[in-house]
Design goal:
The protein is mainly alpha-helical. Helix content is about 75%, strand content about 0%.
Length: about 190
C-alpha cells in the first residue's frame, strides 16, 4: 500500500523532529531527512518547495509543543498573573534546556524573518499571552516592551545556562533563583 502525500509529508516532519532532538539543528539536511524516512533524496522537494519550508514545519512542531506546555502550566488561570508569568518562564527555560536542538532551530532568524513560512502563527500567540499577563501585573508599563525585555532575559538565561556559563558564574546548579531575579527585575518584587 502506498503512503498518502499527507502521510509522507508528516513522516518527513516527524523524522526531522526526531533528528533535531538526537543530533541538533545542524543535522537537518534534506538528504539526511530523506534517508532516515526511507525515501529518495529528492522526495522532500515534492512536499516542501525549499529546505527552509521543511525546517519551518519542523520548528512549528517545537512552537506547538512549547505552547501546549505553557497552556498546561497556566492551568485554569485561577493563579495570579505574576504566578502565571513565573510558570511560563519556568516552562520556557525547561523546554529550552531539555530540547536544545529544537530550541536553536525555532529561533533561527532565516526562518522567523519570512512571514510566508508560517512560524509567526505558532510563535506570536505565546508571546501575546506573555504580553497580556505582563500587562496585568504592570498596568503602568508598556506591556509589549516589558514582555520583550523579559523574554530576552529568559532567552539569555537559557543560552548561558545551556553553555554552562551561568552555573560557573553564579555557583548554582538550579536556574530557579535566576528566574526569580529576572521576574523581580522586570515585574518588581513579589508583594509590590
Amino acid at each position: 500500500m502506498q503512503e498518502s502525500a499527507s502521510g509522507l509529508r508528516a513522516r518527513l516532519i516527524d523524522v526531522g523532529v526526531d533528528l533535531v532532538a538526537r543530533e541538533g539543528a545542524q543535522a537537518l539536511t534534506l538528504r539526511e531527512i530523506a534517508r532516515r524516512a526511507g525515501v529518495s533524496h529528492g522526495a522532500p522537494r515534492r512536499y516542501f518547495a525549499t529546505h527552509l519550508e521543511l525546517l519551518s514545519a519542523i520548528a512549528r512542531r517545537g512552537f506547538e509543543e512549547l505552547g501546549r506546555r505553557a497552556t498546561a502550566a497556566a492551568g485554569d488561570e485561577t493563579s495570579s498573573p505574576r504566578a502565571q508569568v513565573a510558570a511560563l518562564g519556568r516552562v520556557y527555560l525547561e523546554f529550552a534546556l531539555g530540547n536544545r536542538g529544537m530550541y536553536e532551530l525555532m529561533f533561527r532568524h532565516d526562518l522567523l524573518e519570512s512571514g510566508h513560512l508560517g512560524l509567526r502563527d505558532t510563535s506570536l500567540p505565546l508571546f501575546g499571552r506573555l504580553v497580556d499577563l505582563v500587562g496585568r501585573v504592570r498596568p503602568d508599563a508598556d506591556a509589549r516592551l516589558l514582555a520583550g525585555a523579559l523574554w530576552a532575559n529568559l532567552h539569555g538565561i537559557a543560552q548561558l545556562w545551556g553553555w554552562g556559563s551561568l552555573q560557573l558564574a553564579t555557583d548554582t546548579d538550579d536556574f530557579a533563583p535566576l528566574l526569580r531575579a529576572s521576574l523581580d527585575a522586570h515585574l518588581g518584587p513579589v508583594g509590590e
